[in-house]
């Protein structure tokens, strides 16, 4: 047995072997990654970490897995392209736990996603009195259990007439304020041209009878002039028509743009029948020591664990134990402040990732490769240790754990570190260091240097020019918070995850000061058709330039117009939609991913086709363009650290951090502005964080105000002012526990951030 083990040790089976990897920016990367260990990938953003881990290893693992399937099944599966690499060996099944948000569906909750809710249903069917029957009677997603009024959603949507109608306008002036009822539309004709009403009369002057007819009339037909004659239409009042078309199907069914329009004219509130409990009377009447299943779902997980501990009926011991174990895992990743009833679509990316992580912890599978994308996102330094324990637990169960991460405390627990670099994009793509965390710290790489350098507090903080006050904020967990945010300085808003930072800043502050420019990671539209050139509208200048040179129309040089490859319609890829899975994309064979047709590519400027220009990085392109506005835009991209992006790179391939900086570059032109950033260091290497801080300094010194929600202590140290929320998360948080300078924070009692900062400065 011993010799076998010794033999295995030297055998390459103990390593994932990768050679000659050239995916994206990789320059022939060779790696041996120890199996059954925790490996952390470091390096500046854009250096190629994701290209190794996600675009090469994870894709290849998925592809190899598919090859093992019988031909007739494989035929129906997505076709994965083989990543660009020589050898890829000893991969095991890879599970990617990323920050993609979960569940656009209103029925998807923390309880359903973690499969804890079904356990509670079993619990109530056995121990609730009176029992409502078997366990599906407690399911809001089952017709037998759901509240009929709200169909198990817990909320109802009410049309707000004063928002839908403009009383000071006539039908002809567009009194019905909804795009699909705009003057001239088919739906408008039903009212404006029905002959029932004076279309030039202001609504406020309508008689009671006419108003009733307009809003609720029914049971007769009206004539409507169509293109080919007169049609008879069943008349239906505006309220019924609107409700039937836009409310009854459920807001989830509306496209996002339409949904926003609908949300403008409705209010959503708790269901008047079940009061948010989502279940019917029988299910809600069933209680355990006074609480029903809706009460259990509404409790914070930390409290629910205690509540379950008080149940001691022998018949339900196993299910209680199972539920408690699962809940404790959620608590362990720092999410004890969530409730099981919380809709998954309201979770942040970091919260979603940690919940997904929890799901895998409960499984007994071993021998897998787990891949994490910056799991420390959204975590306060205090909670990183607990998350580290989870990564180690996954490893100790016999799995290989690969983590892309910038956080020093996570890097420190790695068995093995792979540092990518030296730069970003074309200047990266190489392995600059491989070994232990201690070795990395001694190394000469950018990461090594950053790990060695410790920054202290700023010598001097700026003085505010004024103050923006948030008054009596009570949203979510906020406890009637009134707090001032100084202007003309850099303010960090800190606190453990769930303490209320986003609620206070991204929701309440921005609602009270709507002129603030919010720069978060989500708000860049990311279709496969957008890229840095289209986003910043450099594409427009590019098209003009080619049009002038060639005498053709600008549209020929757009892949969204006449220039599009006919096969893929200008997408460069063919998308295959699969039920229950993420859609799969393959490179278009007709244009080889170039998006353009041959006609467009016949023309060149300065020896370059439009595709060649889109393949240039922002930095390179500044020599190509001669008009000042475009050069300014390109310079801004470089200024925010995105000079390495090519103009044509689809925005869908950008990381959250890159997307955020792109948005920043696009909006930087505004001056005298309040900027709000939500965790801007996400995806940023320590050296990128430095650059971001320089940028903040430039913004503030240029007369702007910057507010940053942040955990990164380097940002906190650099701030002029700190507002710390807490003391804990959820119902235990929601108060301002500290306001002052970073130096004062380091001495503050009762603040987790203060304690972490003091420890860091030591
Ligand atoms: P990191 O994970 O270190 O931030 P990435 O591996 O995501 O870096 O990116 C390395 C380089 O490859 C960057 O220049 C990035 O913009 C580029 N890149 C990433 N994905 C794609 C893609 N799908 N197509 C083209 N370029 C890409
Ligand atoms: P932080 O930004 O400090 O991590 P949040 O502001 O996201 O904290 O959350 C503060 C509290 O508000 C938490 O208890 C969280 O669960 C709750 N919360 C946040 N967003 C929502 C939402 N959309 N619906 C219900 N509760 C929410
Ligand atoms: Zn209801
Ligand atoms: Zn094509």
UniProtKB/TrEMBL annotation:
A GO biological process held by the record: DNA repair
Region (Disordered): 747-762
CDD domains in UniProt: ABC_UvrA_I (cd03270)
SUPFAM superfamilies hit by this protein: P-loop containing nucleoside triphosphate hydrolases
Signal sequence, start to end: none
Entry's Gene Ontology molecular function annotations: ATP binding; ATP hydrolysis activity; DNA binding; nuclease activity; zinc ion binding
Keywords on record: ATP-binding, Cytoplasm, DNA damage, DNA excision, DNA repair, DNA-binding, Excision nuclease, Metal-binding, Nucleotide-binding, Repeat, Zinc, Zinc-finger
CC annotations in GO: cytoplasm
Annotated ranges, domain ABC transporter: 1-447, 461-758
Primary localisation category: cytoplasm
Subcellular location: Cytoplasm
Pfam families found in the cross-reference section: ABC_tran, UvrA_DNA-bind
Entry-linked InterPro entries: AAA+_ATPase, ABC_transporter-like_ATP-bd, P-loop_NTPase, UvrA_DNA-bd
Stated family: Belongs to the ABC transporter superfamily. UvrA family.
PANTHER family recorded: DRUG RESISTANCE ABC TRANSPORTER, UVRABC SYSTEM PROTEIN A
Name of this protein: UvrABC system protein A
Originating species: Streptomyces achromogenes
Source taxonomy: Bacteria, Bacillati, Actinomycetota, Actinomycetes, Kitasatosporales
